[in-house]
Amino acid sequence: MQVAVIGIGLIGGSFAKDLKQLYPEANIIGIDKSEAHLDEALKLNIIDKKGNYEALADSDVVFVSIPVDSLLEELPKILDAVGEETVVMDAGSTKDLICQSVMDHPKRRNFMACHPIAGTEHSGPSAAINGLYEGKTNIICEVEKTAFKLQEKGLEIFQKMKMRIRYMNPVAHDKHIAYVSHLSHISSFMLGKTVIEKEKNERDIFDMAGSGFESTVRLAKSSPEMWTPIFEQNRDNVVETLEEYIQNLESFKQLLVSRDFGNVHQEMSNTNRIKQILKGIPLTKK
Amino acid sequence: MQVAVIGIGLIGGSFAKDLKQLYPEANIIGIDKSEAHLDEALKLNIIDKKGNYEALADSDVVFVSIPVDSLLEELPKILDAVGEETVVMDAGSTKDLICQSVMDHPKRRNFMACHPIAGTEHSGPSAAINGLYEGKTNIICEVEKTAFKLQEKGLEIFQKMKMRIRYMNPVAHDKHIAYVSHLSHISSFMLGKTVIEKEKNERDIFDMAGSGFESTVRLAKSSPEMWTPIFEQNRDNVVETLEEYIQNLESFKQLLVSRDFGNVHQEMSNTNRIKQILKGIPLTKK
């Protein structure tokens, strides 16, 4: 089996590492605009060799894990280059514009739109880990537009990686993911910003911040290169979630201002329900 | 050594567990308004026996880990009951009102105002763990008001637990902690609320939420009984942090609305500095 991984950072690198374990005979070709990343991935044995789009025609599987703005530009070119039996799968955190970008492509049936919901706040080939995808959810969009045999080929890999597969339309995906992922990132970034602005003396933050702050602000370590185009492509949904979040914070603030601590308690008590809801979410291995 | 632990939940129970390991000969008396918690703590071998304030006169150390509203009421009574050589240490997340509550108490010198910055989102005796305090910071306020010999007695315990000790005045403590702890909790609770409100179908949240959401919303599992009085006592500082946080979220939203993605990137890039700042924060053991 020949597999091309386009974009060999945390997501693509972890995919390649698992693949190598599941299919020891697989020949993994790394494609990346960064020569340094490719060299690092080679050195770490994440890929077997470097390549370019010419390698796509002979590849059985192409996994595309690049920022979603590049994905919009590259995906049509990637489909141009693949063979009849190649399945192309992406890992983009947005799905609507990406599906639209190849809607009328003659090789649309070679593409399976995926969002494996997995990651850490780290990036680059050295952040790649085995087992990143195990137990995580993979949202597949417009699966009916992918050739049946190619669906099978792609799904087999994700199933061997022990992912849970869910099907959804791209518009619904983008709306839901704004709440459970994109908003978390903004809430975390702005929390980090608020504290850094106030606490000019970083030593004080370090000394007083406990693990609660650390976990709440973890996502503020995420890559701006990855997240800016996500927010751009999912702007309307993200703005809507932000408005609701700001409104909830404003209401909570008003309860404090008016010393209505009965309702402060009630608000927190209602939200404690998140305990039950979260019970099944597998934590990312560090 | 006789030690009384008043409030035998996560914080008091973890203190008792470490103490037992460091001072195997210590006799640990549990005091709690909940008979069920005391029975559980006995069964878990966290305490040696149940007791009441009559036991305080003969105790060498009294550790008070109860919600901060109860602390305001109980601390003067606790000091009334202790012996000449007893050191009383609290674990309250606010310090200004607590220090004021015993400011003129004839036994003020028996009290050392502490905030060990440690915890998890869980509560109750069964949540108690060994090593909760290791590597964490303990902020001690108005240390000069504690009798020198009793400072020594208290500090020895925290040092054996490998805590980092920092000294601060109560007003500064409450101001800083609002940023690095109290705001995180509100940001997390309101994130949980926003998502729950939107996603009526909890199965969808469960399936799509990744570990990023899980860590950002972790603090929304915290106890409203503990946190309501913290927000009440530190209301002015908390409202100030909330206003700044809401302002930052509002500005970020405006960047999205006006499609100013250059500055969206810049904002995240500036906040990435949190990586370096956080490097030294020890994660809570789960």
Protein architecture, described:
Two copies of one chain form a homodimer. The longest helix of chain A is centred in the middle third of the chain and has 29 residues, at 170-198. Mean pLDDT of chain A is 93; it is low at 282-286. In chain A, strand 4, helix 3 and strand 5 (87-90) form a beta-alpha-beta unit. Chain A is built from twelve helices and eight strands. The two termini of chain A are 30 Å apart. In chain A, strands 3-2-1-4-5-6-7-8 form an eight-stranded mixed sheet, sandwiched between helices. The first copy, chain A, has two domains: 2-168, NAD(P)-binding Rossmann-like Domain (Rossmann fold, 3-Layer(aba) Sandwich); 173-278, 6-phosphogluconate dehydrogenase C-terminal like domain (6-phosphogluconate dehydrogenase C-terminal fold, Orthogonal Bundle). Chain A has helices spanning 10-22, 35-43, 68-81, 96-101, 148-160, 170-198, 202-208, 211-216, 224-233, 235-257, 261-271, 274-278; strands spanning 2-6, 27-31, 49-50, 61-64, 87-90, 111-116, 137-141, 164-168. In chain A, helix 6 crosses helix 10 (235-257). The first copy, chain A, has 286 residues and is of the alpha/beta class. At the A-B interface, helix 6, helix 7, helix 8, helix 9 and helix 10 of A face helix 6, helix 7, helix 8, helix 9 and helix 10 of B.
